[in-house]
Design a protein that fits this description.
Strand content: 35-45%
Pfam family, one: DUF7899
Number of strands: 34
CATH architecture: 7 Propeller
Helix content: under 10%
Shape: globular
Distance between the termini: 25 Å
Largest sheet: 5 strands, antiparallel
Protein name: Transducin/WD40 repeat-like superfamily protein
InterPro entries: DUF7899, WD40/YVTN_repeat-like_dom_sf
Number of domains: 1
Number of helices: 5
């Protein structure tokens, strides 16, 4: 699932402005921009993807102007996503990866963006998506490039207009198309515009074959659009009329609308939708709807502790997870009202969630550490060698495999460093056991740059060293079909890590 938002939004559920969203912040801020580093008491509920503010594009241009062309990093924009030593060392040798091609989203000769100067500047990669043999990389500046793994060349830029700033992308498996979500300088970056383009047309550089989506919808702030893989639905909110609309991903047809100005937030799951209303002093009004037709399945009030802010409320299938400040975690079965409480000393408010719907498990991130819980509130696994490089976990820097058995993250290479080092490692861990079973580390002597072509021992055209390729990683993606890991960095470069000398099955088994 991914969510597109415009600005910081106070979606708190009590009078104390307690945020249940990472977009909490003063709306009166003269330059409101999304802060991807929420406080520890503001959990992100993954697999939702939250995107930078539209005004970040304007801020980027201003930073370029001040820095004389360099898009200097805003501190707020920093991102995250072995039984014994002998076993761990042997595993590292076995899965040593080769950085294959190096792709660059920057082109000093590009002349298609005369109106937006910051699109011409180097900018860090914020998202990577791979579809078969095509890699898509989105830079923070709003530039989106497509690269071919067949030719190892850049195919095209997906910005079809000189003033288009692409904020995010989504691969729709139902029709094998790529959806881009953009804002435009001609509109003062005020409205989200969605467009779908078949992957085959992108391969042929026929971007004009794409079609706009939701043209009749008003997606101005604080409106949003959300794409969900788990239920094949698209949720749109228009603040103009206060209406939520649910569309089918297969044909983009409207399924139903929800018009209720008292709704504070909406949570989606594979089969249900949770409507969260404005809280009273003693309880929180809730409704559960069928995700397919919007039919109300249950309405009820959840009792709250007075004068205690709500840290988070989340729906996980038939379970409702509620946590208030300095209170126990409550896990409520919405059908039979069975309640489980987990001590506040055992389960502390995380900075991020990852819901594993197939495994019926909950993965939490807190202070750079990862843990796995079941729906009885029991700790299933803690990770022994999986220290995240940044405490601000997000889905740009972590990847959960489709069968939910592995987590791949941007981690620290050395645990002894007091400060977060610029050079990290890519760690692969088993979700059920917490064991680190593979690692791409700059200290691995078996890690080396691959040749120009398979079987070609000549010098590679890759300009980065292995250490540089693992420095300041800002996004990663695991291509399960090709058994390759893609990483993006602050320089706008994308690196491919592959294992060319063993079969795909062997690599998958090793990973």
């Amino acid at each position: 699932m991914m969510i597109i938002w415009f600005h910081q939004i106070d979606r708190g559920y009590d009078d104390s402005s307690s945020p249940l969203s990472p977009f909490y912040g003063p709306l009166g801020n003269p330059n409101p921009s999304f802060d991807p580093c929420p406080r520890s008491d503001q959990p992100l509920a993954f697999p939702s993807r939250f995107w930078p503010s539209v005004l970040e594009a304007v801020a980027a241009e201003e930073r370029c102007a001040r820095a004389g062309g360099e898009d200097s990093e805003d501190p707020r924009d920093r991102q995250v996503r072995p039984d014994g030593p002998s076993h761990r060392h042997a595993c590292a040798r076995e899965v040593s990866e080769y950085p294959a091609p190096e792709f660059d989203t920057y082109d000093c000769d590009i002349h298609m963006f005369p109106d937006l100067q910051y699109l011409k500047k180097r900018s860090k990669i914020i998202e990577i998506v791979s579809v078969k043999d095509v890699i898509f990389a989105v830079a923070q500046s709003g530039l989106c490039a497509a690269f071919s793994r067949t030719t190892n060349k850049r195919m095209c830029f997906l910005n079809i207009s000189p003033d288009e700033v692409i904020r995010s992308i989504f691969y729709n498996k139902n029709d094998e198309s790529l959806i881009t979500v953009s804002v435009y300088a001609s509109d003062n970056f005020r409205s989200l515009k969605c467009r779908t383009t078949p992957i085959e047309c992108i391969r042929r550089n026929q971007l004009d074959a794409g079609c706009p989506l939701f043209e009749t919808e008003s997606l101005k702030w604080p409106g949003f659009v959300e794409f969900s893989d788990m239920n094949c639905k698209i949720l749109i909110f228009s603040d103009q009329d206060g209406t939520y609309k649910v569309f089918d991903q297969k044909n983009y047809s409207l399924l139903y609308s929800i018009c209720d100005k008292d709704i504070q937030d909406i949570k989606t799951s594979p089969s249900m939708m949770l409507l969260v209303y404005h809280r009273t002093a003693s309880h929180l009004p809730l409704k559960i709807l069928s995700i397919e037709d919007g039919k109300v399945l249950k309405s009820f009030n959840h009792l709250l502790h007075r004068n205690k802010k709500v840290d988070f409320i989340e729906q996980f299938n038939e379970k409702l997870l509620v946590k208030q400040e300095n209170e126990n975690l409550q896990i409520l079965d919405v059908w039979n009202s069975d309640l489980i409480e987990v001590s506040k000393t055992e389960f502390m408010t995380p900075s991020a969630f990852v819901f594993l719907h197939e495994k019926h498990l909950l993965l939490t991130c807190r202070y750079r550490t990862v843990a796995v819980w079941n729906l009885r509130g029991e700790l299933v696994a803690s990770f022994e060698d999986h220290l995240l490089r940044h405490p601000d976990c997000n889905t740009y820097n972590i990847y959960i495999t489709s069968d939910e058995d592995l987590i791949i993250s941007n981690c620290t290479a050395c645990h002894d460093d007091v400060e977060v080092p610029s050079v990290g490692s890519i760690n692969v861990s088993d979700i059920l056991t917490g064991k680190c079973i593979a690692k791409i580390c700059p200290l691995d002597p078996h890690l080396r740059i691959g040749p120009r072509k398979p079987g070609d021992a000549s010098r590679s055209t890759i300009r980065s060293t292995i250490k540089e390729a693992l420095e300041n990683v800002t996004a990663l993606f695991y291509e399960e079909d090709r058994n390759e890991i893609y990483t993006g960095n602050e320089q706008g470069l994308v690196h491919v890590w592959s294992k060319p000398h063993i079969s795909g099955d062997s690599l998958r088994a090793c990973l």
